[in-house]
Amino acid sequence: MASASILPEDLILEILSWLPVISLMRFRCVSQTWYFLISHPYLVKLHLQRSSRDTQVLLKLKDLHGVTCTLASLCSTSYLIENPASSFEDSPQFRYVPVNFFLGSCNGLLCLHNSLYLNECEEHWVCFWNPATSIMSTPSPCLRLSFPIYLTQSYCVKWGFGYDDRSDTYKVVVMILDTKTLKMNVRVYCMGDTCWKNISTCHSYYTFEQVGTSLSGTVNWIGLSPACDDRKETFGDVELLEILSYDLRTDTSRYILVPGCTFEPSSEPRLGVLNGGLCVSLDYERTHLVILLLKEVRDLTSWTRLLNIRYENLHVSSSLTADVVILYMSGDILLLANYEDCEFILFNLKANKVERTESFKKPEFHIMLFDYVPSLLLPY
Questions:
Q1: Confidence of residue 220 (pLDDT cuts 50, 70, 90)
Q2: Which candidate, 276, 331, 328, places its Cα nearest to that of 298?
């Protein structure tokens, strides 16, 4: 500690901000002074900014039959692109997570959801976990939804998790759709609060996904809105794809029309994040894979068509039953999973061709990826 006193505190913080979390957690045990420095909010935020330059990928495996998500692991983006099949092997690095749902990753915090179904109601709660520090919060207050279990088909509950940079708050959003009244109730829980807030009620909206996609202070679900009278006058009875975007900063929601796309019952569209933008991937007539990108979620003029390619050009042989999912993007390289033929596809956007394919075992799980940065954030 004699040497530490020679250096000014701001220089010490600068040096510490470049170190990995695992080292900083050990250094906290040196003394009370080191513990205070490494726990200081300034260092926590500075370290997060530095960590975000070296993003890792959180690999999540979701049971194909809708059973609880149980596996999660981390790897570097470069290793993922170079060795996609090896990245997903069931190795000791995978952690079993005893929760019903994994709601997302944000600034190094993972949001985990659990529930209990009773005869007269449903009870839900969440907790927050920092894998880098192995610190987990206590469960949130219980969200009790008072409808009998035999009526659950009349209700649809969707979840989302994200960060509100204006209030420096992590929020969990719940959309509760009553299919009889066609009304949707919005509830929000802020990390550290003592209750769930009843935010608003809006028109019904059918989403294809259980968990929303978080991006730039918003949580987003892709789905279908009911055909209102004014929409029928413009579009007729065609079912249009829309994104329900919930703004965590203002606690308001809006609908974003996916341009040039209608719903085709043959397959469900998927929503994700690519290169910092909101990505929609969908099947077109079982012959083409179409990928659209909304570069800025708050700028509806920033839509672009990233890919429109025939399955045969992706070297997908069974196009009639194709199940191709986009997983990740690194530079000009798209990583896709072809579940029907059990292979990963690396497609070069710049050259407009398949670079290589890599086989994997017949999966019991769907693969989902989230950007992850190790951080010192406390999950409470």
A1: very high
A2: 276
Residues 219 and 236 in one domain: yes
Q: Which of 109, 135, 134, 107 is nearest to 47 (CA)?
A: 107
Which of 207-211, 231-235, 241-245 reaches the highest mean pLDDT? 241-245
8 Å CB contact between 189 and 126:
yes
Is the Cβ–Cβ distance between 280 and 262 less than 8 Å?
A: no
Residue 377 located in a structural domain? no
CATH number of 211's domain: 2.120.10
Domain span including residue 317: 52-372
What digits encode the pLDDT tens for the residues 94-152?
555 555 578 888 999 999 888 887 777 888 999 999 988 989 999 999 998 876 555 55
How many domains, in total, are found in the chain? 2
Q: Is residue 72 part of a domain?
A: yes
> Tens of pLDDT along 24-59?
999 988 888 888 889 999 999 999 998 877 677 777
Together in a domain, 113 and 10: no
Whether the full predicted model's pTM is greater than 0.90, yes or no, is: no
Burial (0-12, 13-18, 19+ Cβ within 10 Å), 157: middle
Whether 243 and 201 map to the same domain: the answer is yes
Q: What is the CATH number of the domain that holds 11?
A: 1.20.1280
- What order do you get walking across the sheet with 270-274 strand by strand? 270-274, 277-284, 288-294, 303-310
Instruction: Say if residue 224 is in the same domain as residue 356.
Output: yes
Radius of gyration for the chain, computed over Cα atoms and rounded to the nearest angstrom: 22
Q: Collect contacts of 72-80 with beta carbons under 8 A, ≥24 apart.
A: 72/97, 72/102, 72/110, 74/131, 74/372, 77/328, 77/330, 78/330, 80/328, 80/330, 80/335, 80/369
